[in-house]
Specification:
The chain is of the alpha/beta class and 196 residues long. It has a single domain, classed as 3-Layer(aba) Sandwich (Rossmann fold), CATH 3.40.50.150. Helices cover 40% and strands 21% of the residues. It has a seven-stranded mixed beta sheet with strand order 3-2-1-4-5-7-6, sandwiched between helices. Helix 2 packs parallel to helix 3 and helix 5 runs parallel beside helix 6. The radius of gyration is 15 Å and the shape is globular. Bound molecules: S-adenosylmethionine. S-adenosylmethionine (SAM) binds next to helix 3 and strand 2. The site of S-adenosylmethionine has 19 residues, from helix 3 and strand 2.
């Protein structure tokens, strides 16, 4: 999956990594920054997504589509599709560029809007990646978990970096009898849940 990343995807990943790196040092306002996951987290979620059982893949928080590209690699392996949600128009434009330039529309469906207006319509979820604002994590978690298929996987980013803001959601997940859950301390910390 990672040895032969298609050139258009690899080139776009490298460009977005460079923009994200610059964002973090040049004073770009928080709302405009891509705030994307690092490559190690991308590999981690793609590995998990590639092991997910049959069902839909969902991503909350597209930004410019960097994490979606990693998940698209897994989708091509498993022959699934991913639906990804982004609320901001400016980011949505970047994400559309990313998906057009990399040719991933065979596996990626993009929705521009507030994920909370759409998420309850997604059933039989096999894999979900939550990487939006901290405020939406709890609501998204509670909407997704009942709709995860047995063995379905939910990953939430920032479980260590934003531990304080996410504490009640994290405690809820770690004590949730519907899932096996733990926090994996790589990069910003990933909450990983598997539906029982
Ligand atoms: C941390 S960034 C996502 C980074 C992306 N996952 C990546 O690694 O490339 C969070 C994104 O979630 C979006 N977002 C926040 N609240 C949202 C909502 N309610 N619905 C959809 N997108 C939302 C933000 O606009 C922002 O672009």
């Amino acid at each position: 999956m990672f040895q032969n990343i298609p050139k258009p995807i690899l080139n776009r990943m490298r460009l977005l990594e460079e923009i994200d790196r610059q964002d973090r040092i040049d004073g770009t306002p928080h709302i405009q920054r891509l705030r994307q996951i690092p490559p190690e987290t991308g590999k981690f979620i793609a590995l998990l997504a590639a092991t997910a059982p049959p069902g839909q893949y969902v991503e909350i928080g597209t930004s410019a589509g960097y994490s979606t590209l990693w998940l698209a690699l897994a989708c091509r392996l498993t022959q699934r599709r991913i639906t990804t949600f982004e609320i901001l128009d400016a980011k949505a434009e970047l994400a559309r560029d990313t998906f057009r330039l990399t040719g991933v529309s065979d596996v990626v469906d993009f929705v521009c809007g507030d994920v909370r207006d759409h998420l309850s319509g997604y059933k039989d979820i096999a894999f979900c990646f939550i990487d939006g604002l901290s405020e939406v994590y709890s609501e998204c978690y509670e909407t997704v978990v009942p709709n995860l298929v047995p063995g379905g996987i939910l990953v939430a980013d920032n479980a260590v970096s934003h531990e304080h803001e996410l504490r009640s959601m994290l405690e809820n997940a770690l004590n949730d009898p519907r899932v096996d859950a733990l926090i994996v301390p790589i990069c910003k910390g990933e909450l990983v849940c598997r539906k029982i």
